[in-house]
Amino acid sequence: MVHFAGENGIDNGAIAKEFFTSVVSEIGKNIFPNGSPTKSLLYVHNGTFHACGQIVATSIAQGGPPPCFLEDSVYDMLVGSNVNMNALIPEKHLTCHEQALLEGIKNDPTSLQDVILEHEYAGNIDKDHVDDIIGTVMISPVSKRLIYLNEFRRGLDLYGLPALIQANSDLCKHL
């Protein structure tokens, strides 16, 4: 006998599926908004990313919904976490929002000085140094995203999903 959403019942799979549908959707909205992990080292420290990975792994293992909330660049980093920070490609490694930020920096870096400094750039902020600024601004979210995704991946390992996903990355991408 199980109890979910105010209802008692014997679970033949429907209640579990309803539960995982609800929880995986909430993970997408709150922990991976806009397809990318929330910027939170607290979620690394307190195990939130890890727990979310475990929930998603359990959902998939029990026939529930897969996580259809990852942006392509984020999914690709989850599958292949070996990223060369000196060879980042905006279209491959950055979200749409981050790519738009780079365009803004290219057009007028001085107007985005505060954002540039938040990404730990420590040089001159002007048009002459745009390439260095962009390189630094690309490294900042990617390096942190790798930390977050590593914890999520550790959670997915509850059922050995990282190996399965890596072996079938194109097939799993569209789940």
TrEMBL record:
<dbReference type="InterPro" id="IPR000569">
    <property type="entry name" value="HECT_dom"/>
</dbReference>
<dbReference type="InterPro" id="IPR035983">
    <property type="entry name" value="Hect_E3_ubiquitin_ligase"/>
</dbReference>
<protein>
    <submittedName>
        <fullName>HEG-like 1</fullName>
    </submittedName>
</protein>
<keyword id="KW-0833">Ubl conjugation pathway</keyword>
<dbReference type="GO" id="GO:0004842">
    <property type="term" value="F:ubiquitin-protein transferase activity"/>
</dbReference>
